[in-house]
Design brief:
Blueprint: H1 2-7, H2 12-23, H3 26-49, H4 68-80, E1 85-89, H5 95-105, E2 112-115, H6 122-128, E3 143-146, H7 157-163, E4 168-174, H8 187-200, E5 205-209, E6 228-232, E7 246-250, H9 252-262, H10 278-307, E8 313-314, E9 326-329, H11 333-344, E10 367-371, E11 383-387, E12 393-397, H12 402-418
Parallel strand pairs: 2-3, 2-4, 4-5, 5-6
Antiparallel strand pairs: 1-7, 6-7, 8-9, 9-12, 10-11, 11-12
Bound molecules: pyridoxal-5'-phosphate (PLP).
Pyridoxal-5'-phosphate binds next to helix 5.
């Protein structure tokens, strides 16, 4: 094995450090496999219950009227996530789009959106209008209020109580850390927050940005009172096979509004051709529990490896985790670049490319990204990205297989060593 790694450019010292680290992770990995098994059953049951059939795997064109594959896929998502309905479409271009649909469809001029968990994901700042933007919610008369987390990361219960007014209509809770150093919330914690908020104002709707969280636990935020959960199909639930798309799962009346926002009032879910993508969406969802498990193992391995070298990592290798993102504080722009070079050069596609930081639509700082993916920008595939700002955190995620995640992580360390980091 070591020879095989050597021929890949990974030194004996790096490989052996990796093997030592892995010895302590066996129990953790076993738990992850059990979660995957549980979730595999959940998805399989939903597919069988809805009678997924061979003819559902072909697609429609044009209006997409009576596309039974598409409609059945949405039933499968809804049953897996224990919601009344779901919207799962290739016409949802990405996670930000799915979130924008869920927000804009369920807020009207004069309403207020509340985030009780601090600043949302970077791309949502323009959606909401925190950074002024054409077409933002703010431009359409929807105001926004935010309650930051306490310095220790706890919910600010009093602040939240004070922030709920009669204007407050929708609450947005981001499960994952995104590009910040705060922790990721468990579905249970999100449930506690939802119960609290609904005890103040029972008719509030709660949306959870579930990006990167799907299938890392046995339950989802929808099992704990979320009215909508939202995510991207080029992350966990697409299983690496969905080439595009997003989902919104939740209460039927809210999903109806989302569908009518995505297409048009009067059309809603009835139109939207699946364009031959049903098969990859079904198959990707079927594989998602195990693909997510592989990515989670990669995240834990990266945490343990970099922790052993004295870097701060979030979460630590010992903490429970509720998403597949691993943040590593790399401290210098050189380390950040070297890490990304390692991930990129371990990729099956575009391995010869050298990542450099650049401006990205929707992001305030230049971002460096490593992604040699089958699906452009897919972050369930082995990928890493970080904004070029202190403390030079890298956000690492994905890996269609645990083995590939491991190879990529060892290669990242090799590049840091090549750039002068002492082992
Ligand atoms: C990825 C992500 C988004 C946005 O998804 P895109 O597909 O990149 O538009 C939103 N929120 C969180 C927490 C994310 O991780």
């Amino acid at each position: 094995m070591q020879k095989a790694y050597e021929s890949f450019g990974i030194s004996a010292a790096v490989y052996e450090r990796g093997e030592r680290i892995l010895k302590d992770l066996a129990e953790r990995f076993r738990e992850i496999d059990e979660t995957a098994e549980f979730n595999q059953l959940k998805v399989l049951r939903a597919m069988q219950k809805n009678g997924v059939a061979d003819y559902h795997l072909t697609g429609s064109t044009g209006y997409g009227h009576d596309d039974q594959g598409r409609d059945t896929l949405e039933r499968v998502y809804a049953d897996t996530f224990h919601t009344e309905d779901a919207l799962v479409r290739p016409q949802i271009t990405c996670g930000t789009h799915a979130l924008y649909i869920a927000l804009s469809a369920n807020l009207k001029a004069g309403d207020e959106l509340l985030s009780p968990v601090g600043r949302p994901y970077d791309t949502l700042e323009e959606v909401i209008g925190i950074r002024p933007s054409v077409g933002s919610l703010a431009e359409n008369g929807i105001s926004y209020r935010q309650v930051d987390l306490k310095p220790d990361g706890a919910f600010d219960w009093d602040g939240i109580r004070d922030a709920v007014t009669e204007k407050t209509k929708l609450v947005t809770i981001q499960r994952s850390r995104g590009y910040s150093s705060r922790r990721t919330f468990s579905p249970e914690e999100i449930g506690e927050l939802i119960r609290f908020i609904k005890s103040i104002k029972p008719d509030l709707n709660v949306m959870v940005d579930n990006c990167y969280g799907e299938f890392t636990r046995r339950e989802e935020p929808s099992d704990f009172g979320a009215d909508m959960i939202v995510g991207s199909l080029i992350k966990n639930p697409g299983g690496g096979l969905a080439p595009v798309g997003g989902y919104i799962a939740g209460r039927a009346d809210l999903i109806e509004r989302c569908a009518k926002r995505l297409t048009a009032p009067g059309l809603g879910k009835d139109v939207g051709a699946s364009l031959g993508l049903n098969a990859s969406m079904f198959q990707g969802f079927f594989l998602s529990p195990t693909v997510t498990a592989g990515a989670e193992k990669g995240a834990i391995f990266a945490a343990a490896l970099y922790e052993s070298l004295g870097f701060s990592v979030y979460p630590s290798s010992k903490e429970p985790r509720y998403d597949i993102i691993q943040a590593i504080e790399l401290k210098t722009p050189e380390n950040l670049s070297a890490f990304c070079a390692g991930i990129q050069s371990a990729a099956p596609v575009d391995s010869f490319v050298r990542p450099v930081a650049s401006e990205m639509p929707g992001y305030p700082d230049p971002v460096i990204m490593a992604a040699g993916c089958f699906v452009q920008g897919s972050s369930i595939e082995l990928s890493a990205d970080g904004p070029m700002r202190e403390p030079y955190n890298i956000y690492f995620q994905g890996g269609l297989t645990w083995q590939h995640a491991k190879i990529g992580i060892l290669n990242s360390l090799q590049k840091l060593v090549d750039a002068g980091l002492a082992l």
